Amino acid sequence: MTDASPPTKQRQAAFRFIFVCALMNAISFGIMIPVLPNLLKQMVGGDTATASTWNVVFSVTWGVMQLFCGPILGMLSDRIGRRPVLLISFFGLAVDFLVMAFAPNLLWLFIGRLINGATAASFSTANAYVADVTAPQDRAKTFGLLGSAFSFGFLVGPAFGGFLAGDLMHGYLGDFALRVPFLVAAGLTAINWLYGYFVLPESLLPERRLARFDWRRANPLGSLAFLRKHGELFGLACVGFLFQLAHTVLPSIFVLYAGYRYHWGSDIVGLTMMGTGLLGVLVQTQLVGPVVARIGERGSLLLGTIGGALGFALYGLAPNGWIYLASAPVFALLNFMQPGLQGLMTRRVGPQEQGQLQGANQGLQGIASVIGPMIFGLTFAWAIHHDASLHLPGLPILIASALLVCAFLLSVRVGHAPPAAARAAAAQ
User: Fold this and answer.
1) Is the residue at 61 inside a domain?
2) Range of 262's domain?
């Protein structure tokens, strides 16, 4: 067996490239989070209920496109390399932002979302890129650092987008202020595309690429068959799915939940999101590496799942805002989960299958993004409708806690390091 991995300095340089790409892409995504619902509301004449319905339609559509296109792009990255797929993803995202900036009606906005959902593979392909340029024993730490780029982007992006579409800009630009964040996001994504085209090196060596593209495996059913073929990889993917499903609860209900239960306005909600985001970045950049070195990838996975379950439980039961805020450090332990999980999963497949693995994970994430908002949104509506008798507005968050308890129990069973033969095959 020969190790064709790039030298350490080359690995570090390649990771810095992909870190910058991930950071800029996450900021671009984050910019639109507080703006898109208001743009929808503007397009439907100010009707909040109708805008909310369209927002769900757009979210579900994006998830469905991810479900079917994620495996295709994942296998494509194994066949032609990571860099071309990243460029495709950046291009699709830039087109989507431009469509949202100038869309005259909902149909054009919907077309933009279709394009973005079909091409959005930057996060999963970035994970495959990291697996290419990182030694197996260092992957958990590196995935933690990459996760911090996503966390920081989603921390900065919403605040930036809210400012660009806020009252100050509205005073100068009127209703067009709602379009400005999408123009800025399109510009950032275009810069990312140029950076990827001229600077970003390819991470997957030609001799490690997939021999041919197989349509039978580049679909949701083929992805499931691929996961089942690799022993406990399917069980780990189920752990990841439970995590993704639970993780949709706060994006789905947090603003409404915090306003209903704690009477928080948008300012306190924004500061809370910033504070919890900073805690996540701290864990991912400062703690994941030394903790994984001490307790291993399996220990990191178990710590993250049980810590997240406890954090969700405290969030859902917190009777006032101060207790909710005091629970944030416990919930931050959830950030240990993904680095440990990705480290264990990437050890079980070879270089020519890392894209398929991440594509399969992206497909499962698509399913979670389709059903999660419906489950938690409807549960929250039911809980507050019966609040006088039940008094459990945190019920959907408690359901998310239960999902992570299931993930913890499953992790105990399937979260072992792969056998030596599997590790050797994955390193070839």
Assistant:
1) yes
2) 8-201+216-427
Q: Determine the residue type at 306.
A: I
211 within some domain: no
> Looking at per-residue confidence, does 241 or 228 come out higher?
241
Cα distances (angstroms) measured from residue 1 to each of 160, 422, 424: 49, 13, 8
For residue range 387-407, what is the model confidence (pLDDT) as tens digits?
A: 767 788 899 999 999 999 999
Nearest Cα to 252, choosing from 96, 335, 152, 371? 371
The model carries a pTM of 0.74
The helix-helix angle for 139-164 and 122-133 (nearest 10°) equals 150
Number of domains in the chain: 1
Residue at 207 is within a domain: no
The CA distances from residue 186 to 155, 158, 177, 267, in Å, are: 18, 15, 15, 26
Instruction: Determine, yes or no, domain membership for 209.
Output: no
pLDDT tens digits, one per residue of 315-358: 999 999 999 999 999 999 999 999 999 889 888 888 888 888 87
